[in-house]
């Protein structure tokens, strides 16, 4: 049985395997069955019906818990948003959710939907610790949830999690962290006292842009039971192939993140000196406002960077059209490098610059990635 003392790179490989009996497969089987044979009310965890639970989820749930250092198995969902919706369904009417103004846009939309139940949504600059703490302490706010994303998507703001968690708890709020960008290799929010971690497994954890999947993790048995109930009733369950593919992708997480993080930092440094680039943002650059905080709190700086080319939104669109290797596409965290002008969507926060391109660095050779960006920048410059 793997123990939490193992390093994350090892855990990603060894957890969620069948027992080592002679003749046993090294990979878990995919079970395709919507229902299970049973008489009367079966005890405990004996499967009954696949919406309520199936053994095909368990190896992935075990592996995710190992990586996030969660005491309880993870809960996989049909998408990151299904996991986020289940967590937001726990918010009591008349309370407030304090959330980054640059949280993932669909998470913000889902939070705002709670306003019809008298929930207040208080948007904050999650990097501004004093402002977040003030919102939590405001007696008019009555926060029940502090939502954290760090780095934020796409502004890459870094939250001071060790300072925010006790402040939220003192105010009677639980702390939920969307850890999609950092991955559990970059930070493990539960070890800082966060109550729930959510993931878009679609991104780095699965890592190959071939599945949509989500997960929630907690150490708290009460929260675990509630989220599990939300999954069973809401029905946002993972398909067996998706769960299996995500686990297969997870095996190489540390190699992929190691490579893409190193390339992202190298590209950010080079782009910052490029004559056709107006601005570059990446937590690994000393010019990033929370660079020191990221250096202290994270292992690595993540594989996302943003750049603003010359020529405004039209310049950014031209750059996205001029690249040959980089894929112009939404989403992120795949083995292939991709880029996107976020404000092409009307739903993106108006405080995100019109000309901002979000770059998700994959695992290709960094020199090829650089050469492609450089030729595209020169062409539009
Ligand atoms: C993509 C993403 C989500 C949503 O996940 P889906 O799997 O697309 O539902 C949530 N948070 C962040 C930070 C994301 O990047």
From TrEMBL:
Keywords: Pyridoxal phosphate
Cofactor: pyridoxal 5'-phosphate
Family note: Belongs to the trans-sulfuration enzymes family.
UniProt protein name: Trans-sulfuration enzyme family protein
UniProt source species: Georgenia faecalis
Source lineage: Bacteria, Bacillati, Actinomycetota, Actinomycetes, Micrococcales
């Amino acid at each position: 049985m793997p123990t939490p003392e193992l390093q994350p790179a090892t855990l990603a490989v060894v957890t969620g395997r069948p027992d080592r009996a002679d003749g046993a497969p090294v990979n878990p089987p995919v079970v395709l069955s919507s229902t299970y044979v049973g008489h009367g009310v079966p005890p405990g965890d004996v499967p009954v019906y696949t919406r309520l639970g199936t053994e095909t989820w368990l190896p992935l749930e075990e592996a995710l818990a190992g990586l996030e250092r969660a005491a309880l198995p993870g809960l996989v969902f049909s998408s990151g948003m299904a996991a986020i919706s289940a967590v937001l369904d726990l918010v009591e009417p008349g309370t407030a959710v304090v959330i980054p103004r640059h949280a993932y846009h669909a998470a913000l939309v889902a939070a705002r939907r709670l306003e019809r139940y008298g929930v207040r949504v208080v948007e904050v600059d999650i990097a501004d610790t004093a402002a977040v703490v003030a919102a939590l302490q405001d007696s008019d706010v009555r926060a029940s949830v502090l939502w954290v994303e760090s780095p934020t998507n796409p502004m890459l703001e870094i939250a001071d999690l060790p300072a925010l968690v006790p402040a939220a708890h003192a105010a009677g709020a639980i702390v939920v962290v969307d850890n999609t960008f950092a991955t559990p290799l970059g930070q493990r929010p539960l070890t800082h006292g966060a109550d729930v971690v959510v993931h878009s497994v679609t991104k780095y954890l699965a890592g190959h842009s071939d599945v949509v999947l989500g997960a929630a993790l907690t150490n708290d048995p009460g929260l675990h039971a509630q989220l599990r109930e939300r999954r069973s009733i809401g029905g946002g369950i993972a398909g067996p192939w998706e769960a299996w593919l995500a686990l297969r992708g997870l095996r190489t997480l540390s190699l992929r993140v190691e490579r893409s993080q190193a390339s992202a930092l190298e590209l950010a440094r080079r782009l910052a000196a490029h004559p056709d680039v107006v601005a570059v943002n990446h937590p690994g650059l000393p010019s990033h406002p929370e660079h020191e905080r990221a250096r202290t709190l994270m292992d690595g700086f993540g594989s996302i960077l943003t750049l603003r080319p010359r020529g405004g939104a039209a310049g950014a669109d031209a750059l996205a059209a001029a690249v040959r290797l980089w894929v112009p596409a939404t989403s992120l965290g795949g083995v292939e490098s991709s880029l996107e002008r976020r404000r092409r969507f009307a739903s993106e926060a108006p405080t995100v610059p019109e000309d901002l391109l979000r770059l998700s660095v994959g695992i290709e050779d960094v020199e090829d990635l650089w050469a492609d960006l450089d030729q595209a920048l020169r062409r539009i410059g």
